[in-house]
Design goal:
Oligomer: single chain
Number of helices: 8
Number of domains: 2
Helix content: 55-70%
Distance between the termini: 21 Å
Strand order of the largest sheet: 2-3-4-5-1-6
Number of strands: 6
Structural class: alpha+beta
Strand content: 15-25%
Length: about 300
């Protein structure tokens, strides 16, 4: 007897909030480092001189914000973002003073630099080594920069708006991936603790909305359990090689351990029994509280 099916898995609100705050703290620290880097890499002497008073003030304020990251992460990140924008605006104003830009060009230049810095922060805090969506952000920024240099301000504005929208979507996708990885780690620890030899995790169908993380465990008896973890919280499972209702009991044990390890919330199970002729209809209905039907 074997079964497969689908269940929605979400971390508890408390666990999600703790993960979110951890990400906020990391982003605030990374953003401060990006501001420092921007100042150090400012090479033009005329712009340095024109921007010097504003830069000194921003540097002092950033130093004061560092101790606040741990105890007030949300407020601190908001404050750091404000200083980062002021930094780019100060450099843009200095460019105007040095007669290198018009006021409109300078404002757009500051906006693009702000997007670049945020994208770099997102890259450094991303759970994945590569992010295709960040590549799209960088491409839009490049297109905006080329248009700006050529004096095509309307085209540059449009490309900048596209980059900002893509950046917002990237941030959400990165957090969703962080949550998925937490669930995968919980599954990996659970299956290993139950004696399964693990193959994976591996990413499949990467081109489809974040792909699917596949984790397969095998027991010496030949029994197999495979889990597909989707980025939206969907969890597909497939148990093979079990006798009677033992596969349902195995699934119940996995879910119990997952709840304890990851503090997850489990939605209703949709399941399909394979070789159902070996169980009576009553046994099917009683087993593990599972409902009939095919998972999505």
């Amino acid at each position: 007897m074997s079964l497969n099916g689908w269940r929605n898995v979400q971390l508890s609100r408390e666990r999600l909030e703790n993960m979110r705050l951890g990400r906020v703290r990391t982003q605030a620290s990374t953003m401060i480092e990006e501001c420092k880097k921007t100042i150090v890499e400012l090479r033009d002497a005329a712009i340095q001189q024109a921007a010097a008073p504003a830069l000194r003030k921003i540097q002092a304020e950033l130093r004061q914000l560092v101790p606040q990251i741990e105890k007030a992460p949300d407020a601190t990140l908001k404050a750091v973002r404000a200083r980062q924008k002021r930094l780019h605006a100060a450099i843009a104003d200095a460019q105007v003073a040095a007669s290198k830009w018009s006021r409109e060009q300078a404002a757009l230049s500051a906006r693009l630099q702000d997007i670049r810095s945020r994208a770099e922060t997102e890259r450094k805090t991303s759970p994945a080594s590569e992010s295709p969506s960040l590549g799209s952000v960088n491409l839009a920024v490049k297109q905006a920069s080329i248009a700006l240099q050529s004096g095509r301000l309307q085209e540059a504005e449009s490309a900048a708006a596209t980059a900002e929208q893509l950046l917002e979507e990237t941030g959400k996708a990165n957090f969703d991936e962080t949550v998925r990885r937490e669930v995968v780690r919980g599954l990996l620890a659970t299956l290993t603790g139950m004696g399964f030899v693990i193959d994976g995790p591996r990413l499949a169908e990467a081109e489809k909305n974040g792909g699917v993380v596949v984790l397969t465990g095998r027991l010496p008896s030949g029994r197999m359990a495979r889990f597909n973890v989707h980025v939206d919280g969907g969890l597909q499972f497939d148990f093979e090689g079990y006798e009677g209702q033992s596969c349902a009991k195995e699934l119940a044990q996995v879910e119990k351990q997952l709840q304890e390890r990851c503090d997850v919330l489990l939605g209703p199970t949709q399941v399909t029994w394979k070789n159902p002729d070996r169980l009576s209809k009553g046994a099917l209905n009683r087993s593990h509280g599972l409902t009939g039907g095919v998972g999505r």
